[in-house]
């Protein structure tokens, strides 16, 4: 959450001449409502069910860059689909960077707590091992510009193809 998946994904897709898809945006498009309302009406479990269906559908497509929500890796089914059908890039960020990027965003239901920075720390501790489990490429997203990061990802993708 806040690592830059959508921003980096859009630019990477453009540079690779692929279609960009953001699972959160796709869920909003299909339901006609924003994610916070889905959380309010269906809870996190309802949202995660919708997310899993979208990931299963799009993970099997070709010539796309798919950005998932930060919690997508919590589901073994999602991890299996993503790692089986695609190249997984984990944009890793420090809690401080995530906090700076998300602190004013009201569209992040899991951060609507009395201590959102502590929540980010908890989420990162829970999710980081899962991201590492399936990641083909791990990139730190807080160090360089988006363009530099995308360039480094492109270089890593070329290396993977040549192996």
Characterise this structure:
The structure is a single chain. The chain has one domain: 3-Layer(aba) Sandwich (Rossmann fold), CATH 3.40.50. 61% of the residues lie in helices and 10% in strands. Strands 1-2 form a two-stranded parallel sheet. A two-stranded parallel ribbon has the order 3-4. Helix 1 crosses helix 7, helix 3 crosses helix 4 and helix 5 crosses helix 6. It is globular, with a radius of gyration of 15 Å. The model has no long low-confidence stretch (mean pLDDT 89).
Mean pLDDT metric: 89
Class based on secondary structure composition and strand pairing? mainly alpha
Largest sheet: 2 strands, parallel
Distance between the termini: 31 Å
**What's the structural domain tally?**
1
Sequence stretches where pLDDT stays below 50 over 5 or more residues: none
Query: What is the CATH H-level superfamily?
Result: P-loop containing nucleotide triphosphate hydrolases
């Amino acid at each position: 959450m806040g690592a830059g998946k959508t921003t980096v994904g859009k630019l990477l897709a453009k540079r690779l001449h692929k279609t960009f898809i953001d699972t959160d945006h796709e869920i909003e498009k299909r339901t006609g409502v924003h994610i916070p309302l889905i959380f309010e009406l269906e809870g996190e479990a309802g949202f995660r069910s919708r997310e899993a269906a979208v990931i299963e559908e799009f993970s099997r497509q070709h010539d796309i860059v798919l950005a998932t929500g930060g919690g997508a890796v919590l589901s073994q089914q999602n991890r299996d689909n993503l790692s089986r059908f695609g190249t997984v890039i984990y944009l890793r960020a420090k809690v401080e960077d995530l906090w700076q990027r998300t602190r004013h965003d009201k569209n992040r239901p899991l951060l609507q707590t009395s201590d959102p920075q502590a929540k980010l720390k908890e989420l990162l501790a829970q999710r980081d091992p899962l991201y590492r489990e399936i990641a083909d490429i791990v990139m730190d997203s807080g160090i360089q510009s988006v363009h530099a990061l995308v360039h480094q990802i492109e270089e890593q993708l070329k290396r993977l193809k040549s192996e």
